Amino acid sequence: MAPISTPQTPFGRVLTAMITPFTADGALDLDGAQQLAVHLVDAGNDGLIVNGTTGESPTTTDAEKNDLVRAVLEAVGDRAHVVAGIGTNDTRHTLELARQAERTGAHGLLAVTPYYSKPPQEGLYRHFTAIADATGLPVMLYDIPGRSGVPIETETLVRLAEHPRIVANKDAKGDLGRAGWAIARSGLAWYSGDDMLNLPLLSVGAVGFVSVVGHVVSPDLRAMLDAHLAGDVQKAAEIHQKLLPVYTGMFRTQGVMTTKAALHLQGLPAGPLRLPLIELTDEETAQLKIDLAAGGVQL
Q1: What is the pTM of this model?
Q2: CB under 8 Å to 122, separation ≥6 — which residues?
Q3: For residue 21, which of 32, 112, 150, 296 is within the disulfide window of CB 3.0 to 4.6 Å?
Q4: Is 116:83 a contact under the CB 8 Å cutoff?
């Protein structure tokens, strides 16, 4: 049975965008993925994103994506929302991935803005509507213009929110003013997609996080969220300030690279990266250790 959701929190509140563990020879490590998923849920996540950007989705095959969703569902699907990343810049391919994820049992879909093609807003509207029409699963949009090249404008978000299965947005736009207006006008469940802005986005109406640093500080993210919901503004701010070195350190370079390095340091499944991503240098790893330690992460 899928975890309990509400219209306000359709995918839970604390979600980690999970890396994809690989074996030493670069193959999919399904046992490692299950171990990591259990670790993250035990640490306070009530949702996991599988096959997102942090999961190196541009380099995994459709079959690997399907195997990964199935493995994570088997490990934690009765305890956490398992949301499948299905977004590409080809609408037809995206619809195939969406239907595949539904058949496998995913609880929801994460659909990133089509990248590189730079479609107009009407193209975005038709793309996302086609995804929502393709399955019976709830959809979280993923607005990240820094990677996609195109923002989902507020008017488009408002239009998309009229679809009964488009229920949430992962916001990595980095604009609190626009976020506040979009939350108020669209009614979508809003999730921070930029760790440095986790607490600020809560203050303008976000309901939770889709986090990268959740790989190493999920208990702190949960505590910060709980403090905010309880009205303890001072405690929430203190946790946010404590985590600033972690936020900084995990994004000094590409986030998947630093996340896998951090998991290696903690003895958790990660494995190598697939090109074009590469391992951190010794100097970068040393700096990451300093940053994580400054934020209270035990290595």
Answers
A1: 0.96
A2: none
A3: 32
A4: no
